[in-house]
Amino acid sequence: MKKWLIAILVSIIGAVIVFFYALYAAGPPDVTVPRSTLFYAADGTKAAETHAGEKRYWIKLEDISPLVIDAVVSIEDKQFYHHFGLDPKRIAGAALADIKAGAKVQGASTITQQYARNVFLTHDKTWTRKAKEAWQALRLEAFYSKDEILEGYLNTVYFGHGAYGIEAASQFYYGKSSASLTASEAALLVGIPKGPSIYSPLVSREKSEQRRRLILSEMHLSKHEYEKAVADAPSITGAFADDENSAPYFIDAVRGELEALGFREQSGLKVYTTLQPRHQKAADKAIADGIVSGAAIQSALVSIDPATHYVTALSGGRNYRESPFNRAVQAYRQPGSLMKPFLYYEALGHGLTPVSKRKSERTTFEGDYSPKNFNSQYAERAVTMAEALAVSDNIYAVKTNLLLEPETLVQTMKQFGVTSKLEAVPSLALGTSGMTVLETGNAYATIASGGSFAKPVFITRVEDMDGKVLYQYKKQPEQRFDEKKIAILTRLMMGMFDKKMSDYATPTGAVMASSLTRTYAGKSGSTPYDYWMAGFTPSLVSVVWTGYDNGAEITKTEDRSRAKVIWAQFMEEAHQGRRPQEFEWPSGLVEAEVDVKTGTACSGGHKLLFERGTEPTTKCPQDEEHTEDMLYPELPDWFR
Q1: Cα(196)–Cα(158) distance, rounded to whole angstroms?
Q2: Mean pLDDT of 508-531
Q3: Residue 608 and residue 488: Cα distance in Å, rounded?
Q4: Which residues are catalytic?
Q5: What is 301-639's CATH topology?
Q6: Least confident of 17-26, 505-514, 557-566
Q7: Is the pTM of this model over 0.90?
Q8: pLDDT class for 63, splitting at 50, 70, 90?
Q9: Mutual orientation of helices 66-76 and 146-156 as an angle, nearest 10°?
Q10: Angle formed at CA 452 by CA 449 and CA 457, multiple of 5 degrees
């Protein structure tokens, strides 16, 4: 008899050992669940969120109203703080009811069991699932505190209408945080998980009201508090106030940056971005206003703060729902004459000045390359760099590119951060190699910043759900270019808005001049298939592209002007309310009044910047042929 008792005792002890080994051997169960990743604009407002079908914000237990905790424990599991994850008394009662009914009809799940089901299991009513649920509940209790389990439950339970967790539910039903819920509001919410399709106030206000009153009666409220809560029927919002992504193309670009930073497939993040909501709104409105409804042409816009290279707005198309293809970062389009300022920056470093001259005429270069000016307008005389840039003279640009050698321009663009493949050919001066709107915009931001380079910045900080900083942007822009030559170039780029800069062709920005209220520097560009406008003030850069997705030629006159219209409206709106800023230049430069046609010093002429000692000294009028011949007397005729 003693042997049997010893055997039974050993068996029991062995079973207990095996049980506890199995319980603890695998370590703490992974309770990670998908959580919404939140994206914040630069002003701290929420710009967007992403989630895998479950809108869920994880919130700490101490940040949830105590009335919610009272309500959920009172109605779901009164013995929560006293059991080990299972409630034997409730289980026995439920089992008896199920046996009598011959089916699974009554639940006895504790909060811990419900949490286990939310995280690990399905909601089917089978004995197998219940056994797994009980086992996982025991594991949770073995490794986590009661408060951690309650916090997990409140953040994972489903409240209907796509809202997972108490915070998402509070935002959906009331438009407020769960920290500020009243007893009445808490009771109504806590009643929903029993059956969201039954007890949601948006499904049946009558049934949700009955359950709200039941829960209030179970809570630890005084008579006065109870009566007040019963009488205080909550008002229901029934919508997420900020459910619409206000900057979908921008957020797509941010998500790409997140992946590049190594946050692939990670959820529950707080991502702080450089988005300026006012700029984004202005960008979207400018594109909507600038292109008539029903037109097939597309557009993209990028704006950047040149001081930091922070991207403040980005639009990759006219309608994200119709076409999520992000033309600002995914499309490679020929920038046309937007390439010329970079060419002329390099030319300034090779001895040329704003008044260096080349003849504007029909020209066939070696290899039978015969570029044309817009509308075949030629000066039939030597023109200065200042005049050539203002009217976008192609002959001057190609001559300059060949003088420097095309590979030089390729290397210059790399220095400006362009990673697209550029062909070292004479026509590169006219933008015949594709680039993205973003990299083009950042290159212009480098000019606007006085030659300070950094990669475009979308994300300033990334935190986990607990506020731990996982990433912080710290890199400072690098002074990569000569400030004096950049200042000279910037002054030249102001000429496109000056109607008096040329007498043989209209400056390319003259049509916009009357609609602009402050000083801008810029450059327009076009090919048969793409129209661009880029420009900046000391505080903001923007680049606009327009064209057809299928690469069709732009033939309509109104379509050729849309990029400029959109750019002008955006820049004016983005600067509204701000005091106009003037461009400053560093020491070592002199401002000279120049006749841009002859390149001579003329009182009352256009004010251009020169490095000290390179400004023109010859007074106007001047023999143009003599000036032209003295520049590079040993060059072939087509250079002149």
Answers
A1: 8
A2: 95
A3: 7
A4: 76, 337
A5: Beta-lactamase (3.40.710)
A6: 17-26
A7: no
A8: very high
A9: 90
A10: 85
